[in-house]
Design the sequence.
């Protein structure tokens, strides 16, 4: 698709935010595919609580961009029915924490129907939802990507920068599989120029394929495997320990955890023999354990000198900043772990 | 090929459809006893008047989203009975290649699906209703639930949305009085589900599912209401669940005497046969002919299904992700 200036709200491309980039991808895809609908709370007039769907209502009308009542169970299920009727719905669940009231349709219908129907019914549905901490405590700060990844049948993707956000949303909107698209709240309003890992965001349509991790910082001493905002935090920590301690960390952004690109991870580990998994999601039974288990299976237990998991503690995220800092991985805590790993 | 008529059935055809449904469910029960089916089975025996009453008002383009007790609704929607039974019997030739099983039949062409999660049929049907409005077509989406499922929150969410935007949406409440072992009136604030319609400024009615003609009249009215864009409708049909919740349920929460009386006085097949005779709408020999042909049709299907292969274990991982 050719670049369309009416689609690009941001004149200075260096100032584009993650939200802008996602909005561009959706608008360009909606332009090309009349079967794409956007539905959710405050996605229309308000333009999304992080601004990602700003302008879509005016451009595509209320039939295709629909503000929903606070009825997540109904409208996630509507997404399932719309897929059966030949549509490609983008269903926004404002914060991933709210998934509790509608996980039923996600885990029992959307993700299972393609298989349960013997391939007869496809669910090209995108669940767009905001994850991660912005200091809003236990019910508005979770990541939960490990929860989705544990349940079979969903692509689980989490872009870490505006370039990937646009390209991965574009990719999500051509999948025949259901996709859970997790946006980090702290990155949504951040401008491209403020990202450490800030590739330019082309105005024209492009895609970032799923299942291909990115090495966002090369290094030889330790491999950091992470996703989402963990990428920015890890880059910051890597920079710090490189200058202060001469530790060169290789930082890998998995970008998607279903599918999970273990080849890139294993290739790095053959070089560094040290693995640090940084995950803002809960520590136990999640991404960090899965990555470690897979590398052990693939490379053998003697292939490592050190394996560390640095993830959100297994408690509800506390409100007080002093407590939050104590339990949530951030650049300072990642740097401290890297130093301890030596 | 299903011989159950879906357009303008005559009384004899409606009766025959109920007999087909009864024989179909009995065949499934035998399949369970013969270990052709290794999981759960929920039959609609005693509830045939509801599905038979839907015949005549469902267009091919209408959507029907059903429940764990879905076989009769699938038959009413024109789903191939052989493909449906093969799915229930877990065969590769099944509607879903044996991946779905009896609670999860999906027929995209016939716009029929079901869910095993009680109450969750309604939001999916609502999605179809939204699509029909968007496309400005005359189709209607029907979500079936039991009276038990009508107490799930999704019921309210869906009625509110459908009524607010006047979506072509019909909730068919199959009220058999029992949510497994819990009686309707012990857990429900009102004596009917349909009286909730007034809370949404919607169409609502409760009828007795013993007589498929009564159901047909009410269902036609509900469908016409939704089809003419006057908003959603709640049609509640009372009926009797002859067997336990599932095959193997001891059903001990209902006294044996009550169950016996129910089977005698609330059998739609028996009732409708007598009605057609009394009204002179059919002769005994016509009805016997219908009964025999229904029996033979199901027997042929059972034979074909039993001869069909089970899914190949090497293909267990197929039909998950397909990518782009």
Sequence:
């Amino acid at each position: 698709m050719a670049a369309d200036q009416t689609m690009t709200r941001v004149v200075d491309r260096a100032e584009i935010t993650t939200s802008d980039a996602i909005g561009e991808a959706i608008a360009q895809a909606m332009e090309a595919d009349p079967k794409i609908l956007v539905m959710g709370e405050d996605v229309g007039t308000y333009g999304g609580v992080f601004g990602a769907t700003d302008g879509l209502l005016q451009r595509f009308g209320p039939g295709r961009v629909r503000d929903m009542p606070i009825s997540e169970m109904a409208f996630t299920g509507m997404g399932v029915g719309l897929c059966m009727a030949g549509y490609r719905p983008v269903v926004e669940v404002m914060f991933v924490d709210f998934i509790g009231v509608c996980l039923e349709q996600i885990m029992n219908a959307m993700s299972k129907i393609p298989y349960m129907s013997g391939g007869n019914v496809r669910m090209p549905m995108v669940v767009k939802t905001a994850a991660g901490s912005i200091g809003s405590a236990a019910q508005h700060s979770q990541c939960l990507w490990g929860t989705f990844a544990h349940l079979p049948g969903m692509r689980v993707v989490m872009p870490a920068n505006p370039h990937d956000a646009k390209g991965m949303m574009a990719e999500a909107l051509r999948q025949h599989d259901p996709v859970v698209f997790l946006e980090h709240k702290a990155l949504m309003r951040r401008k491209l120029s403020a990202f450490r890992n800030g590739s330019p965001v082309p105005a024209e349509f492009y895609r970032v394929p799923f299942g291909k991790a990115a090495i966002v910082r090369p290094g030889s001493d330790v491999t950091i495997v992470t996703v989402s905002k963990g990428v920015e935090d890890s880059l910051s920590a890597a920079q710090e320990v490189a200058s202060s301690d001469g530790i060169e960390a290789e930082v890998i952004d998995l970008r998607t955890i279903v599918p999970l690109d273990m080849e890139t991870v294993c290739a790095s580990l053959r070089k560094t023999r040290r693995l640090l998994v940084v995950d803002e999601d809960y520590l136990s039974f999640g991404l960090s354990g899965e990555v470690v288990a897979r590398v052990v299976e693939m490379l053998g237990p003697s292939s490592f000198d050190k394996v560390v998991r640095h993830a959100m503690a297994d408690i509800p995220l506390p409100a007080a900043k002093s407590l939050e800092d104590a339990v949530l991985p951030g650049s300072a805590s990642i740097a401290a772990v890297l130093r301890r790993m030596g | 090929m299903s011989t159950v008529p879906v357009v303008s059935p005559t009384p004899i055809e409606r009766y025959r459809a109920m007999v087909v449904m009864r024989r179909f469910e009995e065949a499934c029960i035998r399949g369970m006893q013969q270990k052709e089916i290794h999981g759960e089975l929920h039959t609609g025996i005693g509830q045939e008047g509801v599905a038979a009453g839907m015949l005549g008002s469902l267009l091919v383009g209408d959507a029907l989203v059903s429940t764990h007790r879905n076989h009769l609704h699938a038959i009413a929607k024109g789903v191939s009975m052989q493909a449906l039974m093969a799915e229930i019997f877990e065969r590769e030739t099944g509607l879903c290649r044996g991946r779905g099983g009896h609670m999860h039949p999906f027929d995209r062409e016939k716009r029929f699906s079901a869910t095993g999660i009680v109450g969750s049929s309604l939001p999916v049907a609502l999605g179809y209703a939204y699509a029909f409005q968007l496309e400005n077509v005359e189709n209607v989406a029907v979500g079936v639930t039991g009276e038990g499922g009508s107490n799930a929150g999704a019921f309210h969410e869906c009625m509110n949305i459908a009524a607010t935007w006047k979506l072509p949406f019909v909730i068919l409440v199959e009220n058999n009085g029992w949510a497994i072992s819990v009686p309707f009136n012990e857990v429900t604030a009102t004596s009917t589900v349909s009286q909730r319609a007034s809370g949404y400024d919607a169409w609502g009615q409760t009828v007795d599912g013993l007589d498929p003609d009564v159901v047909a009249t009410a269902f036609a009215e509900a469908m016409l209401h939704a089809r003419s864009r006057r908003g959603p409708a709640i049609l509640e049909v009372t009926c009797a669940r002859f067997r336990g919740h599932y095959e193997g349920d001891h059903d001990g929460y209902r006294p044996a005497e009550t169950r016996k009386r129910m089977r005698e006085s609330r059998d739609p097949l028996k009732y409708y046969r007598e009605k057609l005779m009394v009204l002179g709408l059919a002769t005994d020999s016509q009805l016997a002919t219908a009964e025999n042909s229904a029996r033979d049709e199901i027997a042929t299907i059972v034979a074909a299904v039993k001869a069909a292969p089970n899914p190949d274990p090497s293909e267990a991982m197929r039909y998950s992700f397909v990518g782009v």
Observations:
- Chain B has a mean pLDDT of 96.
